[in-house]
Amino acid sequence: MRNHIMIMLIAALFLMAGCASAKDNPTTLSKLYSGNLEKVTKVNIVDGGTGEEKEFIEAADIQPWIEQVQHIVLKPHPNQEERDGFRYAITMYEGNKQMLSFSLGKIGKTYYVVDQDMLDLTVQLWSNHK
Questions:
Q1: 30-66: per-residue pLDDT in tens?
Q2: Of residues 19, 49, 13, 43, the one with CA closest to residue 122
Q3: CA 122 to CA 126: how far, in whole Å?
Q4: Looking at domain 24-128, does it have CATH number 2.60.40?
Q5: CA 65 to CA 62: how far, in whole Å?
Q6: How distant, in Å, are the alpha carbons of 5, 27, 84, 90, 113 from that of 93?
Q7: Chain centre distance of CA 127
Q8: Confidence class of residue 14 from pLDDT cuts 50, 70 and 90?
Q9: Angle between helices 59-69 and 116-128 (to 10 degrees)
Q10: Fewest beta carbons within 10 Å, which of 4, 25, 84, 113?
């Protein structure tokens, strides 16, 4: 009986570790994007502080930004509790199809540590928009 309980406890620990690991693994934008990043035709960015929105449709604006941010390692935030607010929210399109929508601190249901390079590159894109 004691061995049976021990086996069940070990199995439960493995199950819990497997479920938790998905949110613990670093990732990149290129891994999270379900389409082809080279085919992105539009990027909308919303400033979370002001609510102002900017639309980027020129490949000369979009592709250099994507090339620079797509491989930045995004690390899950240790605190996965629900929170409000964001610095910038970004929506990427291929044609009229929305492909990915995220904020710099949250993608899907996972919160990430805001990467300073990603923030700087997004601010640069935002600021250079006419």
A1: 999 999 999 999 999 999 999 999 999 999 999 999 9
A2: 43
A3: 6
A4: yes
A5: 5
A6: 52, 21, 25, 10, 24
A7: 21
A8: very low
A9: 170
A10: 84
